[in-house]
């Protein structure tokens, strides 16, 4: 045995060094709630800084929630926690143009005893422009966590309500120790949703009422200005609806009109042209026939990520009559036409972003994949999630791309974002790192599948780092398509060897990955190993948090095959 192996090995040295020289840091917290440091370096990852850019190997340096640098030759501060990103891909954090995550519906107000359905109070009729989405938002709601897990880091949250629901706000899906509010009163959220059993109960009535409110707000502002500047003028009454609409008539904020159908798109554009307010079209579902109209209007567009249900298509039977086949064909055509609209919008040169309102977080990637299959480019999809959304929300200066000086909002995946087996492993929000479990890929049998690696058996391994050389053995036992194992390594607490279990053993073709935990002074750290098997040789890397990645090579002892 080499002399270096008589000393504490690389693993032991790293672990011992971590807890002796960096005692000021707390144990790593995978929830991202309590960062062990405000400085992180994600090293040697494939970084896609913006839609359309080619991924390059680089390090992303973060401090206090801000990106300090992106490149291959960055000086990493000694206080930085290093995260090995050798096999990972980094994208800008996703931005949701219109979200109801964490939003709870307000209680319906009681009708007054003298209620008149033809002239109801504004609040009862669904006219509440003074409401704020912030007052309805719960940052600790599970839906916020779910959408963060889907890659969303920033969202414009929309209040729940009627024809004029209230004001939107932009928040980050970040730490529970922060307010997470970036900006309030970002847009007035409106729709053609009428009030039941009272005026305005129809879309035409809603349009008439919106005109009435808009024009009366102008009159109210004029009277208020006159009262402030001239004497002898009767004091105008304060009206909360008109006061809350001032930002709209003065062009300070846009109106976000929910317009899922072609008709509602035309109605919103008609109102905007007539009254002159700033407009954002949101929630678009059926818009193929008005793409040219949308392009001519040059207004921001948010299309829905809630795609049509394909259950009816999956339930179609093979042995049916001609009439049923024709019906099936019409259903399939309608579905295909709905999905391909995003690609048509991109082809027409209309930039758009997404709204997830009404969408399940687990359906986000399915919807994106379907759109890409039906004509939307991957670059267009990423732009809708990042740069286009940042533009719509007026925050391109601080978000949408990975650049020095911008918010540290990142999505870190195991493969290219839209690859079939890609999974989100980390999401960085405002500098806080959230870790997520990735499901192991389908395990191959030991040599049964074509090209599958033979990994069962006893391996001799070696590692190299600036701390020196080390080595030991690890054993993998195969049971059908599953694997278990153990590894021996130098005891981080002193002389001798220790054994620990291998976890998350995954074999995919020639790729072998596994991890194991080490208890060092009552603190547990995780070591991740990944690499490629070629015959009886294994060439990989060992990633140790805070210290980066190091070479990890092994040789299989062919006489000790462990298969149950």
- List unreliable stretches of 5+ residues: 1-8, 13-30, 442-450, 560-564
Largest sheet: 9 strands, antiparallel
List the total number of helices: 13
The Cα radius of gyration reads: 29 Å
Structural class: alpha+beta
Mean pLDDT: 87
Tell me the span between the first and last alpha carbons: 32 Å
Assign an overall shape.
Answer: elongated
Record field, number of beta strands: 25
Helix content: 10-25%
TL;DR?
This protein has 564 residues and is of the alpha+beta class.
Plain-language structure description:
The chain has 564 residues and is an alpha+beta fold. Helix content is 24%, strand content 31%. The protein has 13 helices and 25 strands. It has helices at 10-21, 133-136, 142-149, 203-229, 240-249, 262-275, 291-297, 311-314, 322-339, 341-347, 364-373, 378-385, 387-392, and strands at residues 39-47, 56-63, 66-71, 81-84, 89-92, 94-99, 152-157, 164-172, 181-190, 255-258, 279-284, 301-304, 353-355, 410-413, 424-429, 432-435, 457-465, 468-479, 482-490, 497-501, 503-508, 511-520, 523-534, 537-544, 548-557. Strand 8 (164-172) and strand 9 (181-190) form a beta hairpin. Helix 4 (203-229) crosses helix 5. The chain is elongated, with a radius of gyration of 29 Å.
Question: What order do the helices and strands come in, and which of them pair?
Answer:
Blueprint: H1 10-21, E1 39-47, E2 56-63, E3 66-71, E4 81-84, E5 89-92, E6 94-99, H2 133-136, H3 142-149, E7 152-157, E8 164-172, E9 181-190, H4 203-229, H5 240-249, E10 255-258, H6 262-275, E11 279-284, H7 291-297, E12 301-304, H8 311-314, H9 322-339, H10 341-347, E13 353-355, H11 364-373, H12 378-385, H13 387-392, E14 410-413, E15 424-429, E16 432-435, E17 457-465, E18 468-479, E19 482-490, E20 497-501, E21 503-508, E22 511-520, E23 523-534, E24 537-544, E25 548-557
Parallel strand pairs: 1-4, 1-5, 6-7, 9-10, 10-11, 11-12, 12-13
Antiparallel strand pairs: 1-2, 2-3, 5-14, 7-8, 8-9, 14-15, 15-16, 17-18, 17-25, 18-19, 19-20, 21-22, 22-23, 23-24, 24-25
Helix pairs in contact: 4-5
């Amino acid at each position: 045995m080499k002399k270096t192996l008589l000393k504490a090995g690389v693993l032991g040295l790293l672990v011992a060094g971590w807890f002796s020289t960096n005692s000021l840091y707390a144990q790593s917290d995978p929830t991202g709630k309590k960062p062990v440091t405000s400085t992180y370096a994600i090293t040697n990852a494939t970084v896609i800084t913006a839609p359309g850019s080619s991924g390059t190997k680089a390090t992303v340096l973060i401090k206090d929630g801000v990106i300090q640098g992106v490149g291959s030759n960055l000086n990493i501060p000694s206080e930085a926690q290093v995260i090995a990103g050798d096999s990972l891909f980094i994208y800008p954090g996703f931005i949701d143009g219109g979200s109801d995550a964490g939003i709870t519906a307000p209680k319906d107000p009681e009708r007054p005893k003298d209620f008149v359905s033809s002239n109801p109070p504004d609040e009862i009729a669904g006219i509440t422009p003074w409401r704020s989405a912030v007052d309805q938002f719960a940052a600790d709601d599970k839906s916020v966590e779910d959408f963060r897990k889907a890659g969303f880091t920033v969202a414009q949250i929309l209040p729940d309500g009627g024809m004029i629901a209230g004001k939107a706000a932009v928040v980050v899906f970040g730490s529970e120790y922060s307010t997470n509010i970036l900006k309030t009163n970002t847009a007035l959220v409106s729709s053609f949703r009428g009030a039941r059993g009272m005026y305005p109960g129809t879309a035409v009535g809603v349009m008439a009422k919106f005109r009435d409110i808009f024009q009366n707000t102008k009159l109210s502002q004029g009277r208020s200005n006159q009262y402030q500047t001239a004497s002898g003028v009767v004091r105008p009454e304060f009206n909360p609806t008109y006061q809350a609409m001032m930002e709209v008539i003065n062009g300070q904020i846009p109106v976000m009109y929910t317009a899922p159908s072609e008709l509602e798109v035309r109605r919103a554009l008609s109102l905007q042209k007539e009254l002159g307010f700033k407009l954002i079209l949101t929630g678009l579902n059926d818009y193929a026939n008005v793409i040219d109209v949308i392009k001519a209007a040059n207004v921001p567009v948010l299309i829905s990520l809630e795609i049509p249900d394909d259950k009816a298509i999956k339930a179609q039977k093979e042995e049916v009559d001609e009439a049923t086949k024709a019906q099936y064909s019409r259903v399939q055509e309608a579905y295909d036409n709905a999905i391909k609209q995003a690609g048509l919008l991109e082809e027409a040169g209309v930039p758009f972003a997404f709204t997830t309102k009404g969408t399940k977080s687990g359906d986000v990637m399915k919807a994106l994949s379907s759109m890409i299959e039906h004509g939307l480019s991957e670059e267009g999809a990423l732009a809708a999630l990042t740069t286009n959304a940042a533009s719509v929300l007026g925050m391109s200066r601080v978000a949408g791309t990975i650049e020095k000086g911008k918010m540290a909002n990142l999505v870190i995946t195991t493969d290219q974002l839209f690859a079939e087996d890609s999974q989100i492993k980390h999401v960085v929000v405002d500098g806080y790192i959230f870790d997520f479990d990735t499901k192991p890929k389908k395990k191959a049998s030991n040599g049964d599948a074509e090209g599958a690696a033979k990994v069962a058996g006893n391996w001799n391994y070696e590692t190299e780092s600036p701390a020196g050389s080390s080595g030991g053995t690890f054993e993998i036992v195969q049971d059908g398509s599953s694997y278990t194992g153990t590894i021996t390594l130098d005891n981080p607490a002193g002389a001798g060897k220790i054994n620990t279990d291998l976890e998350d053993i995954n074999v995919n073709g020639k790729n072998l990955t596994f991890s194991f935990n080490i208890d060092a002074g009552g603190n547990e750290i995780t070591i991740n190993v990944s690499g490629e098997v070629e015959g009886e040789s294994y060439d990989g890397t060992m990633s140790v948090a805070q210290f980066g990645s190091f070479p990890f090579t092994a040789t299989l002892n062919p006489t000790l095959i462990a298969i149950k």
